[in-house]
Structures are given as C-alpha cells and as structure tokens.
Amino acid sequence: MKKIFYAVTITGALLITSCEKELDQTPISSATTETFYSIPNDFLQGVNSVYANLKTYPDRQLNLSETRSDNLYAVSDGGVRDWEGVNSFHKNLSANPYLEEAWATNYNGIYKANTVLGQIATNGTIITNATLRNRYEAETRFLRAFYYFDLVRWFGKVPLIDKVVSAKEALEIPRSPVADVYGLIISDLQFAIDNLTEVYTLPADKGRVTKNAAKGILALVHMTRSGPTYSIDGPGLGLNEWGKAYTLLNEVVVSNRYAFISSYPTVFSFTNENNSEVVFDVQYNTGSNPVVGATFPWVLVPDNWFTSLGKPVQGGLTIRPVATDLLNSYETADTRKAFSIQTGFVANGVAEPRSFFKKYVDLNRVPVSRFDWPINFIVLRYTDILLLKAECTLNGGGGNLATDVLIPVNQVRARAGLTVPLTSLTLAQLMEERRKEFAAEGSRWHDLVRSGLVITKIPAWITAEDVQRQMQPFVKDFVIYAIPQSQLDVKQGLYTQNVGYN
Known about the structure:
The chain is mainly alpha-helical. Helices cover 47% and strands 6% of the residues. α11 packs antiparallel against α12 (242-254). The chain starts with a helix and ends in a 14-residue tail after the last helix. It comes from Pedobacter cryophilus.
C-alpha cells in the first residue's frame, strides 16, 4: 500500500479541511466536488486520501496508550514534556497537543470519508463495476469506523457526524452517547465485512483493508463494549459480547490467510514487511518528495542514544523510561526483552542506566530525515487475533481452556524462548502475557481498560513505581481523556468537559 497513502494528487488538496483544530470543518464546495469526481479513478484517489489520516495513528498509540500505561514511568527529567501529564494523570490535560492531534486527525479522516461516501451515493454510477464501487464504499466505511473507534476509546462521547456538514451545522451537533457512536461503527464494519475481499491480487493494492481486518477490528469493538463501564461515559458498556467477538476471531483463524512466525524479531523486520502475521497495518512510503515515511520508531527513543552511536538526531528528545515493574516481569530466558528494550547506554561519557523501548529501530536503517523511517506499523497481527480469542474464551465467549487459551499462549511463549508450558491461566495472567508480547505496540492501556484491571493495577503500580512522587492519584474518570480545550471553545456550552478534568 505504499502507493495508496501518500501519492501526491489533487485529491489530498481538495479533501483536507481548512481548520484542523476545530470541529467546524469547512466542506469543499459542491461545484468543486462534482467537478473532481468525474471519472472512476477520482474515487480511488478519494479513498486513498482517507487512508492518509492513518499516518499518525502509531505515534498516537505510543503517546496516549503506551505512555499512559504501567509500561512507562515517564515523569520529568528536568524539562516539561507533553507526555508527562499523560503518564502522571494530570487533571489539566485539555491543552495537551497529543489530545488535540487525536481529535483533529480522526475527525479530519471522518470528514474525508463522509465526502467520499457522499460522492459515491450521488455520483457513484460513474463506477460501472458494482463490485469495485462497493469495495470503495467498504474501504471508506471501515476507515470511518476505525477513526470513530479511536475517538471513543480516548474521549468517550463524541459528536456523531455521518455526512458532510457546514460549519454552521457542526456548531449544533453535540456529543452523542457512546452507544450511538458504536452503532455507526458496527454498521460500517459489517458493511466492510460483507463487501471486502480476503486478499488483493494486484501489487498496487497491497495493504488495503481486507475482510479479515474488518472482522478483527469488529471483534475488538465487541470486546471493548463488553468491558466495564466504570460508571463513566467511556468505551466500556458492560455488554456480554464475548461470543460475538470469539466467532469473528475464529473466522479469521480458519481463513488460513495468516500464519504464526517462529521468530519474534522477524515479525518486525524492515525486510519482512507484509508478512504472514500482518492482518492490518499502516504502511509508509519512503524516499519521496515531500517526505512521507514513518516517525513512530523514534517516539519512545531518546535522541542522545542515536547521537551516541553516530546517527542523526531524531525526535524522541529525552528518555521515557520503561517501568521497573515491566522490566522485572520478563522471565530470564525471554528473548523479547532484549529485542524490545535497550537497557542503558553511554552518551558523551555519561552512563544512562534507565531503559527505553527500541522495538522498531534498525540501526542500519536510520534515515537522515526523522520523518522518513522505512517501516510499516502493524495495527493487528495474527498473534493478537489468537490472544484476543483466548481472552474471549476466558470471559465465557466460547471455546475451551486447552485449545483456545493454553495452546496459543504456550506457542507465543515458546517463540520467546520460554520452553516450560503453562497448565493454567487466568485473565489477569493472560494480560501479563499480552503485556510482554505487545510491549511498545500501543495496546497496554486499552487492555487494562477493557479487562477492568486498570482500577487495581494502576494505583498499585503508582505506589510502587513513583519514586519521584510526581504522579497524581488514579481515579476511574481517567479511563478516558479530557476533551481538547479548542473544542470546548468552538461554541460555549456545546460540549462539557469530561468529569475529573479541569
């Protein structure tokens, strides 16, 4: 899909809103829209432009999920950093740029999706191949659902906009109940499942969303909805949809489109992209002008590590240390620790004893431009499908402990060098297995919230880990984030701030 996201076309210019920090997204004029969507290829470019908003998704997961979780102890090291309040549960997060980006980028993607879907509805007959027309709609609806799911997990209630609206109309749209937003998400994903293929045959289509990717994300939606409510307007609705999720995940498994790779580092190798583990990923094009590669490899990596090795400065700035609790949780023989984590280094003759995540860094491929890393980000991989399915089983969603839980978990552990098989496993223990397997992949915070463990794990972790006494007490309101201040300022009274934040 390296040609899908970032081909420089007129579409990108037409579909980007004029204001990224406000909800009042000014639509392109109907005349311009109608003029542009005049041949079938215009729709392809329009769909591609919706994919483009995935570009910062990996960075967002590292900044808002990984950093929020007990995987990192990212308190002050002498300067005020944007991630500090995220990690330390500050109440005054409404102006945090990470939250601004999450809101603006997702809604920009939704706006572009609505534009494409509106044109398919009115001008779609230009695409005479009905199967292709349905595929374009399915891809676009998957992406709209994906962006809304991201918003719900961060903010809870959000404005539900399923068509292009004017600036004036947007100012009258309040935040919708989470259940209503999920309604659109599920409808969009089901349409994607019904109209997408399992595999693409043309090289130019490599990386496009597939039927199985839609099944995997819909399963995760059902699992997230089944999580506890915490008595807040968050992503969990307390529903018992584990069986629905199990069925979808099992369909992905029995499709035989994916395979378990025996070497953990090979899953993330720069020379092994689009491998048999990848169900859905964000793909990047490198060496282009303008530069449109990946930035996520250095997000959690301090700059002085790169410079100490004679590499160009990237953008990670200072260190976000891996939590001692996570470091100590790895068994001695676990090879994932050395691959994922750098345990100290020396820069300018000074030893840095703290550890950091280096999972996506290949020191032989550090680019001159920090915006041009040549590696894709795996959003959903086959191992995740297997372990999510195990989670459903442990929650009573189907299957049995031996086949659906112990076999895949022991397979994952054996790949990591842990040869003694487990003979029993609780949900809490499964989450610890996931913690080490998916470290630095942005899943930890979502796992804690979905499982209900966030209420006990985070307070206990803060007590044990916060040696600098920088972190605020955790309360259930912090399951979701603050609404960005820019959105509260768009129209007084349209939105109210999430409980627990200033």
